[in-house]
């Protein structure tokens, strides 16, 4: 039986109301994040169905490793979010595992973005123009941010791989699905001198940022692999030690071959159903769930776009 999950919403200074397009009952006009598949202690999802109904994903992961086909004590490795950048996000960077474990007590944060929607001429910040550490430090210290940040135009359907150490920011008017390591550590470099609702500028982390920015990761975006499987459109966006992320554009029926003992599934467009173990479940835009070792003979049927990830 798939584990269907109840989203958790986060208010953000840059958030808006675009998450309502997923038929979510969002809490306010500044809803920036939907934590869609999360076992992170800062916002674990509640399971909505079956024998685990009412339990958090964090608890079930800790108590029933066999359900996921794992035997280690590591934390649940992935986190899926949908982000509504009604305003531009701060320019930031995330540490790698080594730095984060030493300084923050959790794993680092390599992530990737699938652009769900974007206004005309929307752009992100992706990487920096500094050639070496000395130039980077000088430009940060002297706030030469217009010259430092590399800007890229984006449109719906684009994909960006953002490894730890990559300077990045989501621009205004962009809706994305983010797949990431299960970490909540962010170092802000620049925040446009915005003030929060208390009139305070948000904290920056310039020294940490200078320590973790990886100048060798500037050309790190992945090369998607496209193919047709069972007459359905399949794209593998990225596959590495952190995660594999796939897109399926389904028009009809797909017998899904799970590549791992569990996987994370988000319906980002359309509707349909999933059949597994002689049971059928309705799927709609904004549905998020996990397929586990208990799910055999999985069949998707309908007209819908799925983002699937696994380790």
UniProtKB/TrEMBL annotation:
It catalyses: D-mannose 6-phosphate = D-fructose 6-phosphate. Gene3D superfamilies: Jelly Rolls. Its EC number is 5.3.1.8. It is an enzyme of class 5 (isomerase). Its cofactor is Zn(2+). Binds 1 zinc ion per subunit. GO terms for molecular function: mannose-6-phosphate isomerase activity; zinc ion binding. Keywords: Isomerase, Metal-binding, Zinc. Residues 4-114 form the Phosphomannose isomerase type I catalytic domain. Zn(2+) binds at residues 94, 111, 168. The keyword Zinc applies. InterPro entries: Carb_Metab_Reg_Kinase/Isom, Man6P_Isoase-1, Man6P_isomerase_Firm_short, MPI_cupin_dom, PMI_typeI_cat, RmlC-like_jellyroll, RmlC_Cupin_sf. One of its GO terms (biological process) is carbohydrate metabolic process. Residues 235-311 form the Mannose-6-phosphate isomerase cupin domain. SUPFAM superfamilies: RmlC-like cupins (SSF51182). The active site is at 188. Transmembrane segments: none annotated. Belongs to the mannose-6-phosphate isomerase type 1 family. This is Mannose-6-phosphate isomerase. It comes from Staphylococcus edaphicus. The lineage of its organism: Bacteria, Bacillati, Bacillota, Bacilli, Bacillales. The gene is manA.
